[in-house]
TrEMBL record:
<dbReference type="Pfam" id="PF01594">
    <property type="entry name" value="AI-2E_transport"/>
</dbReference>
<comment type="similarity">
    <text>Belongs to the autoinducer-2 exporter (AI-2E) (TC 2.A.86) family.</text>
</comment>
<feature type="transmembrane region" description="Helical">
    <location>
        <begin position="303"/>
        <end position="330"/>
    </location>
</feature>
<dbReference type="InterPro" id="IPR002549">
    <property type="entry name" value="AI-2E-like"/>
</dbReference>
<keyword id="KW-0813">Transport</keyword>
<feature type="transmembrane region" description="Helical">
    <location>
        <begin position="138"/>
        <end position="166"/>
    </location>
</feature>
<keyword id="KW-0812">Transmembrane</keyword>
<feature type="transmembrane region" description="Helical">
    <location>
        <begin position="232"/>
        <end position="259"/>
    </location>
</feature>
<feature type="transmembrane region" description="Helical">
    <location>
        <begin position="30"/>
        <end position="47"/>
    </location>
</feature>
<keyword id="KW-0472">Membrane</keyword>
<protein>
    <recommendedName>
        <fullName>Permease</fullName>
    </recommendedName>
</protein>
<feature type="transmembrane region" description="Helical">
    <location>
        <begin position="266"/>
        <end position="283"/>
    </location>
</feature>
<feature type="transmembrane region" description="Helical">
    <location>
        <begin position="7"/>
        <end position="24"/>
    </location>
</feature>
<feature type="transmembrane region" description="Helical">
    <location>
        <begin position="59"/>
        <end position="80"/>
    </location>
</feature>
<feature type="transmembrane region" description="Helical">
    <location>
        <begin position="203"/>
        <end position="226"/>
    </location>
</feature>
<keyword id="KW-1003">Cell membrane</keyword>
<keyword id="KW-1133">Transmembrane helix</keyword>
Amino acid sequence: MTKKASLVGFNQFLYFLIALFGIMYLGRSFLIPLAIGCLFAMLLIPACRWLERRKFSRFAAAAACVFSLVLVLIGVLTLLTQQIVSLNNDLSNLHEHFYGFASSVQDQVEETFGIAKDEQKAYLADQMDKVAEVVGSYAAFFVAQFGSFLVHLVIIITYTLLLLVYRGRIKNFVLKLVEKHTGQGQSDHTRKVVHEVANVSNAYVAGVFYVVAILSVCNTVALYAIGVEHAVLFGILAGLLNIIPYLGSLVGSLIPVIYVLLTKDAFSYAIIVGGYFLLIQQVESYVLTPNITGGKIKLSPLFTILIVLFGNLIWGIAGMVLFVPLLGIAKVIFDHVPQLEPYGYLIAKK
């Protein structure tokens, strides 16, 4: 009977996972804005509490925090848009530098492998046409989706505001639900666990955003000091991509390195930029993240990469960004619930 009960429990767990992932995939258009709204709400909770202690009503405090968030988002998007337009205006110069760089490479290829320049130019022109076609299709796609983006942004802001206003009711609902299954005798322990999970999760999510902001500023200042054009765009982009562990930091550092290779005559610029990003990643890993997000939430590199790939499978690019902090929140819950501690141990770094 024991083996049969264990098998039934395991089958029920598998069915639960299949149903959960199926709902997450089919309901992604609804769940992605809600998940982003939850993360923004967690980010704003400390500021909201600060205003409430100064006699602001809950709605007024939430509205002020959300309005400040909207101003920051508008400022960042405006700055990035200006930088992208400026980069687009410089594409002609980039085109000349690229062909100058390609010409030197062609000389080396012809000398080393005996492939004539005409053959190389024909192949290169064909590849450039394909790249231009792909870039054009993506540009048209983003333009077409801009209206949809604005609609989703309004929905996310609305979710954020309502979650801040009704966060007390949601927390009480979770407490009542947990107490119903654990019994009234565990009421004090349940409240303590829920409060700890909420506080640590809020601090973790806020810490992730703080690290992104610090890295964006440091990247921008460093790239500007090195002499890289469009330092603001590459600095903020590298900081935002850092939300995606390992893969994001790699892509965020490669983009400015490749740009410098194509625009600077001296190879030393690319070495300096690459060396800077290597250094800042060490600072982020051993100084910023442990001290800002806290040492308790250290995710295993294996499960971090797995959750990034799984997030891409379920929710696309949004999943790659959202699933890592969601896994961090899940680890906090695992660590504070005795029955789930093995799962927290499994996904922990140490």
